[in-house]
Design brief:
five-stranded mixed β-sheet; 311 residues; alpha+beta; binds zinc ion; 6 helices; single chain
Length: 311
């Protein structure tokens, strides 16, 4: 039987926000069983609770923004991916800024800090969301399909149609260990021409090579990649974070083709509407900081070039 989980202690995380460039601080607090993931936005001595569920999504351009009573919190997907990936069911997250810290552009710092403070097993059985039939959302040539399954599996294909980055496909069965080592380290990425557009629009002020992979038409500006298919793995990371807006972990086989936050959120709305909440009969996995495999972590080393294919 798997049990619900929270943190063993409070945890503070501080860093630069990607778009505003301002310093952002989070405090993660343990929460009782069946709380879910709840952001607490500090406003005029009042704490406005904003639950991490799709009904509170107010924007999906560039990142996922949650909002309620005039308060907004942006770029929640990487933290939500870490919480989903590590099996954290219940947490309060105090925020002092409208945007989450970007850290290194992946979920690795969240994972490391959470494993360091420790995960607490609670006395209520873990719940998850299932749907007994397939579901699909589309937008032009973008597709996102849900197939019923007893496991959580993702097939993802990206195609940016650029010489430096066109097609990448990856498949993972997502569990705590594959999440930590195969997904959580994959960084967000952008194209240099998009950076200038974002900056003109007052965005990406905190963006740098320390928190994103930046691609030109012919090269990668960073020193190296963490995985040769780091791009598609980051999209899987985003999808895991977005799927956690179901309010529960999902069991199902997800097939994504050129998806993004807006399509992800549309699928989550369907899953919330037609899905069923069940108790988890699988076994619990104990995790520790030792589960992070160190050798894949480094970004230095030989510069990696993507081989392009012409399909
Ligand atoms: Zn992302």
């Amino acid at each position: 039987m798997a049990f619900q989980k929270t943190l063993q202690d409070e945890l503070k995380i501080t860093g630069i926000a990607l778009h505003s460039g301002e310093l952002s601080q989070l405090i993660l607090h343990p929460a009782p069983p069946d709380t879910g993931i709840v952001f607490l936005y500090q406003k005029d001595n009042k704490r406005i609770p904003i639950k991490a569920i799709v009904e509170n999504v107010v924007d999906t351009r560039y990142a996922v923004t949650l909002g309620k009573e005039g308060c907004m919190i942006s770029t929640v997907e990487h933290l939500l991916a870490a919480l989903s990936g590590l099996g954290i069911d219940n947490l309060y997250i105090s925020v002092n800024s409208i945007e989450m810290p970007i850290l290194d552009g992946s979920a690795l710092e969240f994972v490391k800090k959470i494993l360091k403070v420790g995960i607490e097993k609670q006395d209520q059985i873990k719940k998850y969301l299932i749907l007994e039939e397939p579901a699909e959302v589309d937008e032009g040539d973008k597709h996102l399909i849900f197939m019923p399954s007893n496991d959580f599996k993702i097939n993802y294909t990206i195609d940016f149609g650029r010489e430096i980055l066109n097609k990448q496909t990856a498949f993972f069965e997502i569990n705590e260990k594959t999440f930590i080592n195969d997904i959580s380290k994959a960084r967000t990425f952008t194209f240099l021409d998009e950076v200038s557009y974002l900056r003109k629009n007052g965005l990406a002020k905190g963006g740098s090579l320390d928190n994103a992979i930046v691609l030109t038409d012919t090269d990668i500006l960073n020193d190296g990649l963490r995985y040769k298919d780091e791009f598609v793995r980051h999209k899987i990371l985003d999808l895991i974070g977005d799927l956690y807006l179901c309010g529960y972990p999902v069991k199902g086989h997800i097939i994504a083709y050129k998806s993004g936050h807006s399509l992800d959120v549309r699928l989550v709305r369907l899953l919330r509407k037609f899905g069923e909440i069940k108790e988890d009969e699988s076994e619990d996995i104990e995790l520790s900081i030792d589960d992070i495999v160190e050798q894949v972590e480094t970004v230095s080393g030989p510069r990696f070039h993507i081989t392009t294919s012409s399909n």
